[in-house]
Structure formats: C-alpha cells, structure tokens
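name: query_chain
kind: protein
chains: 1
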Amino acid sequence: MGIPEPVRRLARDPFRELPTPKNIEIVELPGAQIGFSPHPGAQVALPSPAGMDVPAAVEAARAAARERGKETIAWWLVPEHLELYGARFEELGIVNADTPGFEAVENGLALLEPPAGERVDDVEVRIVETFEDYCAGARVIVECFGYPEQSEEEHRERFAEYLDDDRGRAFIGIVDGQVVGNSFAACADAGVNLFGGSVVPGARGRGVYRALLFARWDFAVERGTSALTVQAGRMSRPICERLGFRFVDASRVYVDTL
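structure:
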C-alpha cells in the first residue's frame, strides 16, 4: 500500500502541516517564518515555499529571538530547501548539527497499520491529565534531552496551556509505579505526528517505547485518522522501522546559536 500524499507531507514537514498550537507565536520574516514557543530549546524556523532571502531572514530571525530571550533557532530544511539554502546557512555560521530536541538529520517515517509485534503487558501508559503526571513527564524530557529544569510556576503555566489546547496530548509510560517514559501525539487531518518519544536510560529495553507507540496508535484510530508519522533520529529510526514504519524523506536541522 502506498503512502497517501497528505501523510507524506506530515512526515517530512510536520511544523508546516500541523495546526499551530495556541501557545506558539508565529512571526513572519522576509521569505520565512519562525514559531516561538514558551518551552526551552530551539525555536523552529521555516523557509517560505515561494523563496527566501537567506541573510535578511537570518538577521530578522535573530532579532526576533533576542527580543524574546531565545538563544537557539532551528531551521527545518526539507530536501528541496537544503539544495537552495544549505550552503548559504553555512556561510553565515549556521550549522547542520544536533541541538536539544532535534537531531541534525530527522528521518520522516509513516505507519499506516498497527505496529508490528506484541503489545507490552507490564508497562502502564496513560494520557497526561493531572499536574503531577505533567511534571513527571517533564522530568523524563529533562533527563533524556538535556533541557533545563523549569520552576513550578513555569510548569503550572505550561500545564494550563496544555489543558486548553486540544491539538495534541502527552502520554507517559510507567514501570513499577515510576514514570520512565514520555511522548506526545500531535493531531492533524492526515494523521497523528509523534514527538518526544523518550525513555530514561535505566528503564530501556523493557518495552516502554513500544507501549507508548501502541497507545498513540490507538489514539489515532479512535479519532478516525489511522496513520502515524514521526521524525526519527539515529537511535529511534531502526526501532521505528522494526515496528513497521516506512521511510518517507529526510530533513535537516540547521542550528543558529545566538
């Protein structure tokens, strides 16, 4: 079975295809746009389909980021944009590299049928609905991705935003009563895009990642969009492919550290 074009687009270019969350501020630049998130980490910038003046867009993005106290911009380049802009970014000191939350190469994958293999019985997965679960999932993100710790006040603000936005839901994985896995399902018309699948090192190899995947597949089916997409890094791509995901395309992340 071929991969439908809307699913392909979601796999390769999720930030353009997904609905904009309520807590993201979109700023239009000369030939590009950047989305500012209240969360720590890189802010995502996208070239315009109509073309981009690279130096002007970079300067505008840097100025906008500094105004908002942001330190890192991640330019998301699909293959056709890489050919046009990759060398120009490098001339400006913007490099194709890993940064917390993103890898230098993000492999777009798609799944159109239930994940391969058996479900995991000894891992509990639940959708985040309480502040305690939200904070426990945040601790997994900090440990796995190197994000800075946030204060309780910041967590409460982010949790309130999360509850107010129905464009996606977080899932946590629990083993022996401890939250050891975290993941997110972002909702689009074409399917559900997976973000942030992570398991703390001490709990890896116990099926937590698989359990989180099955839970999000069920979530996608229940909402009537039985397709999953993901942008997988070097570690997660082989895991996802063993579970039935198929490769769509590879995008590259160019990191501008201010």
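note: The chain has a mean pLDDT of 94.
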